[in-house]
Write the structure tokens for this entry.
Amino acid sequence: METNFTHHQSAHCENGVASNLLKHNGLNISEPMVFGIGSGLFFVYLPFIKVNYAPAISYRPLPGLIFNRLAKRLGLKIKRQKFSNPTNATKALDENLKNNIPTGLQVGVYNLTYFPDEYRFHFNAHNLVVYGKTETDYLISDPVMETVTTLTHAELDKVRFAKGAFAPRGQMYYPIQLPKDIDIKNAIVKGIKNTCRDMLAPVPIIGVKGIRFVAKQIQKWPLKHGTKKANHYLAQLVRMQEEIGTGGGGFRFIYAAFLQEASTILENEALRELSAEMTVIGDLWRDFAVNASRVYKNRSTQKDVYNTLSNELLAIADKEEIFFKKLRNVIKSY
Amino acid sequence: MKKEEVPQDEGNLSKSNMKELIYATDEKGNYTTALSSGWEPKTIALTNSIEEINERIETARVQVKNGVSSPIVYYMELNKMDPTILASYVGLWKWRVKRHFRPRVFTRLSAKILQKYADAFSITVGELQNFKG
């Protein structure tokens, strides 16, 4: 069985699945719109949690949150189900496919056989759509891939029941009800307000303050942990920043694209100017990645390279603080 | 980022012909999308992590050989796991998993527990027991 699902590639998995599923249901919404309305831009630094033996840094909110917020703000209903055992999970998915419903799944990356080996880490917040089933395989639309792909029945079981942090527990989701009239303007405003609130939160590990916290930590890493560990931490920071499905620079560009679309819909020229400003900040994030990668590639042991990097990140934090304050002011009147 | 600046470096993705989608601006400053085959800083970061993991695997292998650690440690590293992830795959407390890292404790494990580890690593119990480093 196969549903008539159209695959579109996206920059980030959760946006992509949301956008693709909604397009399938007749609501034409772009990836940047999903990201913006769902308030996908975020930053949190959790030094007390270690991922791959380095402090956890996340550039996005908890898995599932983007789609949930989007649904709430657009007034649509999504059904989410988790399962305690694979047999029931398979049954429910097959039932959906029989009813011609392409279904979103949260999966672990480690056993996604179509990914290059280097990308297969124990990361459980990846999303994809299953749109059909054959004798041996499931038909998969993974939004970060250029084209559709497949996984065997056993492989899909494995990725749906991956273990560890954010274990997906077979989670599947799909929109069940779309409203006739959608108030997209109001949804955009809510999405932007939420992002401003997050990024300007008065909490030391979140948003702009979180970025500053990390920047200050970078200075201390080589003294506290030695160069080797400091370099490992830096490499992890860059990986979390620029790898598929996460995002520092990449996310800023998606957000800038969203602001551009929003400026047309809300007929507000100021948002278009802010979009251009966000693009500049995105470029700064990329410059930071370039410079950080140089440090751990050359295994430089000088102390001041870390200070330089730290200052670079502090400058980004300052720019973002100004940016989100401006954005908050522009959106206040709505 | 401008569309023509989207990096097309040789990377981990280009080996398998994968390309990722990136948002970038066209000549009028309007946002559009472009495909990227890879970007050097990312490749370096990933390579750095993989080297790190290979070092850990090698250290574990030597430890097993010298009788300091049980084969569980080696296979845990080989599967890019840490004790927390392994504990959740085998469904045991982390302290128990860590205890099983000791060779003497490992040799006395029940068939049932050994099977759990073998399943987590997708190998047979025999392979797990007979790994000598």
Notes: The first helix of chain A runs from residue 13 to 24. The first strand of chain A starts at residue 44 and ends at 51. Chain A touches chain B through 50 residues (CB under 8 Å). Residues 80-172 of chain A form one domain.
